[in-house]
């Protein structure tokens, strides 16, 4: 955005002007350069962040294609605000937050139409290793958790964030993060066995 | 434990074979551009819709009460109808309008048209002088396509008592322009106050006049500028007063003043709403500003030339 430098009286604005076409060309070129630079920055960021975001999204939804869509939605939303955010300190955290919002939105949209066809079987200790055919994967077990608890587990134990960061990303208190991560781990332990989810 | 669970996550992810990323980034950029375009359209449309809603609300409130006269007009008050310039033909009235009631609304000219049209009335207030300012001598001389710099130049001429700076173009394309600037002027307490003034000249396909009126448009009889909205909103806790006028050729002019001084908002002005931070930017001044016949998709040539000199930072337009 081009701005005039100072607030001054109308009479003060009598500085000489360069020829119109040259100045217009300069303004347009500067604007195009700025846009191109922002696009380059965004593309570089998106290419580096997309695999990580997609893995996180996959852990949240168990579906690579949906994870790809969610990643694309998150990146598109970041693109819209890119000129405002691209100089912020923590684009990584911002991208995680946008992704989680996309996951929550998607979950909310589909919650009325999804039908649960089967429950993940409850497993006893040691059962997981005993029968590979019936083995419950961590991703399946994660899917049994409410979406916010799933986000807490993924951000806390996969993304390796502190309790405070997770609370900040999800907009909840640290107490909620601690309580829900403890409950979620307990639930995962029940499903996968204590060997797979150590205390 | 965290490390163990993380290793478990990694093992789990390694077991799944992810599809290639493909053109994910390119698609995201394309979607982002589309979202950005839609958002900017919504912003413009939302402002116009807000102005329209305000007009409809005021029109409904201003319907004649049981006593006969307009609800909030004092006896003897001038009718809040756009007064036509001497050279223009008076707006046609619907044949059913009682002559004594006065032309309180502009109505669709094609009453037999099957579409549902909205009849918009000017705000039913006696507080504003809705006369279209007479153009100064020579104003009908050469006009050139609008530019942000020219709009700022004309704005400066229409508001001579203000210091205007930090001008920037928020939008500039074939369908309209929006310029924003910081203005300094004398406040109600005699002290210099600061406000942000945003001016928009935007083509609107929602309105048309006479035979050009389409099926899904709001139709006006008058070819002249018509005040259609005075609204107060709050942006990030700061009051903003917006005044919008439709001009006869299918485009609208709006002026929004963002009051920067909290002290100036404590005393309501006679027309309702917050007291303007700057005396010269009161509601009546804004009404007169947006009704000025010089606004348009073409602006006086002298403003185009002067704008280039006075606002070199703004896009100068096509020569």
How would you sum up this structure, described in words?
Chain B: Keywords: Membrane, Transmembrane, Transmembrane helix. Chain B: Residues 71-102 are annotated as: Disordered. Chain B: The chain crosses the membrane at residues 40-63. Chain A is mainly alpha-helical and 199 residues long. Chain A has two domains: 28-115, Rna Polymerase Sigma Factor, Chain: A (Orthogonal Bundle); 120-199, Arc Repressor Mutant, subunit A (Orthogonal Bundle). Helix content of chain A is 66%, strand content 1%. Chain A has helices at 20-61, 64-80, 82-85, 91-110, 127-130, 138-143, 147-158, 163-170, 174-192; one strand at residues 7-8. In chain A, helix 1 (20-61) runs antiparallel to helix 2 (64-80). The radius of gyration of chain A is 24 Å and the shape is elongated. Residues 1-19 and 123-134 of chain A have low confidence and may be disordered. Chain B has a domain at 99-310. Chain B has five helices and ten strands; from the N terminus they run H-H-E-H-E-E-E-E-E-E-E-E-H-E-H. In chain B, the strands form three sheets. Chain B has a six-stranded antiparallel sheet. Chain B has a two-stranded antiparallel ribbon with strand order 1-10. The model of chain B is unreliable at 63-126 and 263-271 (pLDDT under 50). Chain B is elongated and about 80 Å long. Chain B is an alpha+beta fold and 319 residues long. Chain B is 26% helix and 24% strand. At the A-B interface, strand 1, helix 1, helix 2 and helix 7 of A face helix 1, helix 2, strand 2 and helix 5 of B. Strand 1 (7-8) of chain A pairs antiparallel with strand 2 of chain B, so a sheet runs across the interface.
